[in-house]
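Our working data are protein records whose layout never changes between entries. An example says more than a description, so a record of this kind follows.
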Amino acid sequence: MITVPSGSTLTLRCYDQGAGVESLALISLAETRAEFVAELPPIPVLSLDDPGVRRAGVLELVSSAGVTWVEAELRGGLLTILGDTPTDIVQRRTAARRMAGYSATGTAQIDSGLVAMAAQVEDISTDGVLLRVTDRPRLPDGITRTLLHVAMPWGLLTASVTTVDQRADLLRGTFEWVDPAGAAALHEYCAAR
């Protein structure tokens, strides 16, 4: 089952001959479900475009099963999957994930040194974490690793995170190291969903 949760950020990359590639960030307004990506009904989204504007491009579709890329069209506030679409997911999420909302502080490693940051955990699993920075409009470019302290329900979780993907104010990473007590508590927390 593929589920696109309400409030998800979806990125539609459109090619414009004059401007090149334009990336549109769209927010899903309602949960959408189907057995396969190809069977997803039109997804209602929040967009800055006028209702009459039609845009087509490649959609980075983030769902409960992982991430895949498909052709899609945006028209009248609805995002519709187009053409031949894959029935599989490119990036599988093997570990159970939990939506979060916990505050985190950390130190990010970039080429030029270290940068302090404050963030909110969007979701977390035993494998990794998705963070949204809260102390600035966007993250510095080129974060390779982050030492993170997260205020979880059981106490402070300290971990080292290797960056998998970074966009604007979002950072997705896998755990390189988690303190042993925190690892056990995190496993229980994620298994209890």
User: Anything to note?
Assistant: Residues 180-191 form the longest helix (12 residues).
